Each structure stands twice: as structure tokens, then as C-alpha cells.
């Protein structure tokens, strides 16, 4: 499925590229080890991590709207020989990893995690961990450079800092697993430190 993922995401900018996916896979494996729970299906976890950004709304064609959601992951897994049940489980998880989707409908995410899809918690946490800390800062500015002009509003570096304050520092509070919460706390501290440096340098109040 990595070959499929690389091909499907070949036009994505570096903030959401194959390297991001591999970091999420590694973080998911780390969380899987730290949580030490038998409730997780490792196959479902890894496949969901590999495929979690295939249907990212930020990169889909405009014709693929919420009223006509794609099932690219399900179809790809079936073509690769996966059982329909496995394909459906992974499809359900990747369709609910999104922070923005959870913000709109948090009850659905909670219901899924508590009723047969615990792997969603691991993949969400891993994806959000890669959005914070030093890597997260780099991805934030990369996305601004690639997509910021199309989003409307000012196209300045301050827009990235606004995103950092409004969303990224809030991600720690959305972590589901205990291991994810611990890792997020450390990475969020790095965000706050960077924010302090930014404010300091922006006002020319630099220690000499």
C-alpha cells in the first residue's frame, strides 16, 4: 500500500507528503508499543496510518465534496486483496482522522473509538503529534507557502503564527491515548518556546 500511497500523494506539497506519512506510521508504532493494549489490531493501525491522508480535503479535487465523499482507500485495499471487512475498517478510520472533521462532530469520533474502532485514537494522536513540535512548525510554514495564497486573507508569515496559536497549541488537548498526551506535552512546549522567540524578534526586543 506504500506504492499506492506514494502515487496518490505525489502532487501533495511537502507538508503532507510521503515523509509525513512515514513519520505518522513510526509514531503510530511507538504509541502502539507504549499503550501495550490488546484492543488494537496492529494491521488496521498501520494500514490506517499509511493511508490516512489519501482523502485529505485540502488536496481533493473540488468535485469531491462532503456530499459525495470518496472511498478511494476502500477500493484500493480491495484491489490489493484485502478482505471487505478490513477495507471498511480502515476506510472508516481514515475518514475520521481529520481534526476539522472531529471539531465539527466530536461525538461521532468518540462513538467510533468506544465502539469497535479504538485504532482511530492511535492514528489521530500520531497524526497530530507530527503537527506540533519542531516538525510541526516546519510543516506549518511549508503549508502556508504552498497553499496560503489560495486560502484568502493575508499571505504573510504571521498567518502561520496565527495558525500555531489558534490550532497547533490546542492539539495537546485532543490527544486520546496516555502516551500521546505525554508526547504532545513536550512538543507543545517547543511550540510555545518558538512563539516566544517569534514575539521577541518581531519587536526587536532581542537580548544582546
Automatic annotation (TrEMBL):
Alphabetical list of Gene3D superfamilies matching this protein: 1.10.3210.50
GO molecular function: hydrolase activity
Domain HD/PDEase: 13-141
Entry-linked InterPro entries: HD/PDEase_dom
UniProt KW NADP keyword: no
Hydrolase found in the keyword field: yes
Keyword annotations: Hydrolase
Protein name, entry field: HD superfamily hydrolase
Amino acid at each position: 500500500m506504500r506504492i499506492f500511497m506514494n502515487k496518490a500523494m505525489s502532487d501533495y506539497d511537502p507538508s503532507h507528503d510521503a515523509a509525513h506519512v512515514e513519520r505518522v506510521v513510526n509514531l503510530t508504532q511507538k504509541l502502539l508499543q507504549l499503550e501495550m493494549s490488546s484492543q488494537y489490531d496492529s494491521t488496521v493501525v498501520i494500514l490506517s496510518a499509511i493511508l490516512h491522508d489519501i482523502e485529505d480535503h485540502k488536496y481533493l479535487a473540488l468535485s469531491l465534496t462532503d456530499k459525495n465523499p470518496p472511498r478511494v482507500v476502500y477500493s484500493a485495499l480491495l484491489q490489493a486483496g484485502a478482505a471487505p471487512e478490513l477495507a471498511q475498517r480502515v476506510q472508516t478510520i481514515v475518514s475520521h482522522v481529520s481534526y476539522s472533521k472531529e471539531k465539527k462532530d466530536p461525538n461521532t469520533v468518540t462513538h467510533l473509538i468506544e465502539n469497535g474502532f479504538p485504532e482511530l485514537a492511535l492514528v489521530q494522536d500520531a497524526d497530530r503529534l507530527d503537527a506540533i513540535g519542531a516538525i510541526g512548525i516546519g510543516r506549518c510554514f511549508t503549508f502556508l507557502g504552498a497553499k496560503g495564497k489560495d486560502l484568502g486573507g493575508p499571505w504573510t508569515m504571521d498567518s502561520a503564527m496565527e495558525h500555531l496559536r489558534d490550532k497547533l497549541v490546542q492539539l495537546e488537548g485532543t490527544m486520546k491515548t496516555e502516551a500521546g498526551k505525554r508526547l504532545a506535552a513536550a512538543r507543545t512546549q517547543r511550540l510555545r518556546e518558538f512563539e516566544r522567540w517569534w514575539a521577541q524578534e518581531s519587536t526587536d526586543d532581542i537580548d544582546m
